[in-house]
Specification:
Elements: H1 4-21, H2 23-27, E1 32-38, E2 41-48, E3 51-59, H3 62-72, E4 77-78, H4 86-96, H5 115-124, E5 133-134, H6 135-141, H7 148-156, E6 169-170, H8 184-194, H9 198-203
Parallel strand pairs: 1-4, 5-6
Antiparallel strand pairs: 1-2, 2-3
Helix pairs in contact: 6-7
Length: about 220
């Protein structure tokens, strides 16, 4: 049986650990994730007390999603979605069915990312389905077009793909730009095509014309 003095020491040690690790160190102990099916594959979201801490794009194999969450959030356990997060799942499903769902109010734990990244994500998540902004557009909204490269770097670290729709941010001149998720630019193009974005048609590589058929010799 633990003594009162030992209990005080344990409480002090836990408190010091939380301070050293930051608030997030405590929150991470209570994180969960759920995997669910969409029209194009299995997706997932992870959450903790302060909101969503991660998301995963649809995959053919749900095991890939689970392994990704286990790597990113080793302390998280798979669980049923709480009722307040069910609309997030349904909105992701709707988007994958070419519906104009809105995820701009989904609860995110932005305290887990740098302040600059959080500002980038807040702008990106306001881009409606079917529309796009360039890295320069977001940089301009942040007050300096020279920040375009930093915007791209922040989006490359986006923990919430789809919820924060980094695929709707493209390079200038009709180019797709980078995409850090599995499949790279082709995954980005596929998502833009599903949403009916004009940028998808502009960025899609033109098909090479077939060579003329040679006349048959008699």
């Amino acid at each position: 049986m633990i003594s009162e003095i030992d209990a005080d020491r344990l409480a002090y040690a836990v408190g010091i650990s939380a301070v050293r690790g930051g608030v997030g160190a405590y929150i991470r102990d209570m994180s969960n994730f759920a995997v669910f099916e969409t029209a194009i594959g299995w997706a997932g979201i992870a959450w903790a007390e302060q909101g969503l801490i991660g998301a995963h794009l649809p995959e053919r194999d749900p095991g890939v999603v689970r392994k990704s969450f286990a790597r990113r959030f080793p302390e998280a356990t798979e669980a049923a979605l709480p009722p307040e997060l069910a609309p997030v799942m349904e909105s992701i499903r709707a988007l994958m069915q070419r519906e104009k769902a809105d995820l701009s109010t989904a609860p995110l734990d932005l305290a887990r990312v740098p302040e600059f990244n959080a500002k980038v994500y807040e702008i990106a998540r306001r881009i409606p389905p079917g529309e796009t902004l360039t890295y320069g557009d977001i940089a301009k909204q942040l007050g300096d077009r020279l920040l375009a490269r930093d915007v791209g770097a922040a989006l490359g670290k986006n923990p919430w793909p789809i919820v924060v729709p980094c695929h709707r941010v493209t390079a200038a001149g009709g180019k797709l730009g980078g995409f850090s998720a599995r499949g790279g630019a082709m995954t980005k193009l596929k998502l833009l095509e599903i949403e009916g974005a004009a940028a998808a048609a502009q960025a899609k590589p033109a098909r090479k014309p077939e060579p003329p058929k040679q006349p048959r010799l008699l």
